[in-house]
């Protein structure tokens, strides 16, 4: 059975929230790793590459935050006009 539009919206919002959490954790871990490398006078090339990885992860967090906001707004709009009989409690908990 194909997922309903409500399920699709809820699952994509859940995925984005999970991704944002993982990227935030990656930023924290990568910052620690870069600091360790600096304190141990690591190879300049390796350090530069790890800083690039850190910067890429840092750029992803605001992008995901923006996407989460957009998905929440779309879900709110969808719920305002939704007339189906599916349980919307999970959807409502995600938008709060």
TrEMBL record:
Q: Which Gene3D superfamilies match?
A: 1.20.58.90
Locations listed in the record: Cytoplasm, Cytoskeleton
Q: Which UniProt keywords apply?
A: Chaperone, Cytoplasm, Cytoskeleton, Microtubule
InterPro entries associated with the record: TBCA, TBCA_sf
Q: Which SUPFAM superfamilies match?
A: Tubulin chaperone cofactor A
Q: Tell me the subunit arrangement.
A: Supercomplex made of cofactors A to E. Cofactors A and D function by capturing and stabilizing tubulin in a quasi-native conformation. Cofactor E binds to the cofactor D-tubulin complex; interaction with cofactor C then causes the release of tubulin polypeptides that are committed to the native state.
Q: Give the record's family classification.
A: Belongs to the TBCA family.
State the PANTHER family in the record. TUBULIN-SPECIFIC CHAPERONE A (PTHR21500)
This protein is called what?
Answer: Tubulin-specific chaperone A
